[in-house]
TrEMBL record:
GO biological process, one term: pyrimidine nucleobase metabolic process
Domain called Glycosyl transferase family: residue spans: 1-168
Protein name: Thymidine phosphorylase
Keywords in alphabetical order: Glycosyltransferase, Transferase
Cited Pfam families: Glycos_transf_3 (PF00591)
Gene: TYMP
Keyword Signal listed: no
GO function terms (MF aspect): 1,4-alpha-oligoglucan phosphorylase activity
Organism: Homo sapiens
Length: 169
């Protein structure tokens, strides 16, 4: 992971026994106690991993619908409120978006195709719904981290980076 960080500046990883082992325990406890949808346990799982990274701002995309943990928007909204509230009480600037998972985002399904579609989006192309989500979430992060005066200004900066190809660069 350190080599990836040194070479690319970022990496995507998942929970393992060597990386955030306590999160595995939380997941296992949720499974055996039938509390997979427990707001406090989900909140602890999400925020514990983010806070240990030393973040100052976080944007979470809380999913709801047929393919999500929460089937309806009201339950997802409760998680979003909890994440924002607990995060704020711990000194983290948090914003949350609610996204329906009743249909795929974009036009592609499957890892390789979704990566290709993400690259197209970063180069100013790709489906409008993916672009809208990227600019909304990215704009919120720029605003929360102090790199834009408002969420709308942040979204405009993200859109400009997509359009001029600098996002892909």
């Amino acid at each position: 992971m350190q080599v990836l960080l040194d070479q690319a500046g970022c990496c995507i990883v998942g929970q393992s026994e060597q990386l955030v082992p306590a999160d595995g325990i939380l997941y296992a406890a949720r499974d055996v106690t039938a509390t997979v949808d427990s707001l406090p346990l989900i909140t602890a799982s999400i925020l514990s991993k983010k806070l240990v990274e030393g973040l100052s701002a976080l944007v979470v995309d809380v999913k709801f619908g047929g393919a999500a943990v929460f089937p309806n928007q009201e339950q997802a909204r409760e998680l979003a409120k909890t994440l924002v509230g607990v995060g704020a009480s711990l000194g983290l600037r948090v914003a949350a978006a609610l996204t329906a998972m009743d249909k795929p985002l974009g036009r592609c399904v499957g890892h390789a195709l979704e990566v290709e579609e993400a690259l197209l989006c970063m180069d100013g192309a790709g489906p409008p719904d993916l672009r809208d989500l990227v600019t909304t979430l990215g704009g919120a992060l720029l605003w929360l981290s102090g790199h834009a005066g408002t969420q709308a200004q942040g979204a405009a900066r993200v859109a400009a980076a997509l359009d001029d190809g600098s996002a892909l660069g």
